[in-house]
Request: fold
Amino acid sequence: MKANFLSFLATAALGFGLVSINAPAADAPAKPNIIFILSDDVGMGNIGCYGGAFKTPNIDALAAGGTRFEHCFANPLCGPSRATCLTGRYLFRTGMLTNQSAREMHTNEIMVPKVLKPAGYVTAQVGKWNQLPLQPSEWGFDEYLRFQGSGKYWASQEKNYTQNGKTVELGDRYLPDVMHEFLIDFITRHKDQPFYVHYAMSQMHTQMMGTPDTTTGRKGDLYAENNAYMDKLVGRLVAELEKLHLREKTLLVFTGDNGTARGAAAEATVEDKAISGKKGDLLEGGSLVPLIFNWPGVTPAGKVLKDLTDFTDFLPTFAELGGTKLPEGVTIDGHSCAAQVKGEKGTPREWIYMQLGQQWYVRDAGWKLTGTGALFDMSGAPFVEKVVASDSSDEAAKSARVRLQAVLDQLNPSGMSKVVSNTKADRKAKRRENKEKRKPKAAEPATSPEAK
Ligand SMILES: [Ca+2]
Reply:
């Protein structure tokens, strides 16, 4: 009788639109497990549900059962992008301006695992790590499996990997499978406490090698085969979570560390059109990446958001969902998307900031202004970025220039004392300077003013 009455209430409420069908499941935990899947060199054109040219049924299923963002911006290269998503801070603050900035990155930065630790999270890093300084454990990860370099698949490229400080021979195993097995072992051992995993996949970084599923062996097929294998690994992870009864307790996040790389960018179209730019540049294609949040029973299913988000947003999002505080005395640039993860409107960003080396821009929904003062009309993005003449009398353009310049003035990336240039020429000059310093100094002439 009681059950029938409750059933009637639920039906009536649904009928009158009083209950959201996306309301959290009764057994949804307050703190989700978080698995952050960071694919490598994967832009929107690699993913089917973004209108991409490749079939990705498992990733598409995550989007169908969750919420995907259409305007997520990563830094255009691997190292800076990873520093940003792990610290929640822009490059001019962390010092990780380029892929060669490991020596400049401040080792007192605080990464996600240290933020989640006080909330009882156990944490692991899996996969690529090479551009960042120190070992994952030194940033607070409880366990890790990392390899050296990028895009590693077989022992012919890299003989060993490192697991919790120990060198392990890869042998004839396939590294992405080894990473998957480490991940599953970690979550199985820790299934009774909240966990966070930074899962940095090998795919789709070059050098493209055959996968265990490769059948044709034709070089031209390798890219699509690897894209399919990346998707298969995501599907295998979802299946394992279901087997462990962890699916409802786990937030899966799928994204890419930068846009599609040169060589594949022309192939990775969106709705059959090439997007502007590619990995490594400050056009849309350098930074625009897929972003899917999927926490069954909590994240609305099939929702597509136009909200702007950038790679600083993950740390505050995870901190809020984990019920823990942000680091004190540290400027966090990210805006939490926890509300959107739960299906609420939240307070979406009005702009995102993007930087690589000594170049940067700020972008809002319709316009983009670079650090050198070039304004772009982004109404045709991601396919067209239309430069606006500096003397344009268009009121909307003039107003955008003022608005976005005010953001750049406030961030002041060039004025930050810790901004360092790190071009090849700079590094050569620094080496020369250090060499000079090491040379034994000649005795000062007696008449030198300094000697007095
Ligand atoms: Ca990358």
